[in-house]
Specification:
single chain, 110 residues, alpha+beta, Alpha-Beta Plaits, 3-stranded antiparallel beta sheet, two-stranded antiparallel sheet, binds iron/sulfur cluster
Length: 110
């Protein structure tokens, strides 16, 4: 939130994100884009990866974008994330010279 209590920009806490897509589905203007892939979880207990057992997999986040030219700062994504991977992070996004420049990826949202 900003100093006066209004919603500002949003921070992605990448290590908490499971690529569950809930935020993208709940966003009323569809301004969150997520790409991920699935890989075998190397931390799974041995009995879960033994012979005849299907290996346990996990989602790995490849791309997470918020398009600030569409965002309404409503906070639904922050409220709905079940893993506390989104939080308010200070002031609004400053104007940019083009619409493309208002799409922030993982690094800019960190
Ligand atoms: S604050 Fe609202 S409009 Fe902006 S990304 Fe989150 S759900 Fe979408
Ligand atoms: S709801 Fe949270 S955990 Fe799920 S994809 Fe969005 S930020 Fe990641």
């Amino acid at each position: 939130m900003t100093a006066d209590g209004t919603h500002g920009k949003i921070r992605l806490i990448e290590e908490n994100c499971t690529s569950c897509m809930i935020c993208a589905r709940e966003c009323p203007v569809w301004c969150i884009q997520i790409d991920s892939h699935t890989e075998v979880d190397p931390t799974a207990p041995a009995q879960q990866t033994g012979r005849g057992m299907r290996p346990r997999t996990r989602n790995v986040l490849d791309r997470f974008v918020i398009d600030w030219s569409l965002c309404m700062y409503c906070g639904i994504c922050v409220e709905e994330c079940p893993f506390d991977a989104l939080e308010w992070n200070g002031a609004h996004v400053a104007p940019r010279p083009s619409l493309d420049a208002l799409s922030f990826g993982i690094d800019e949202l960190a």
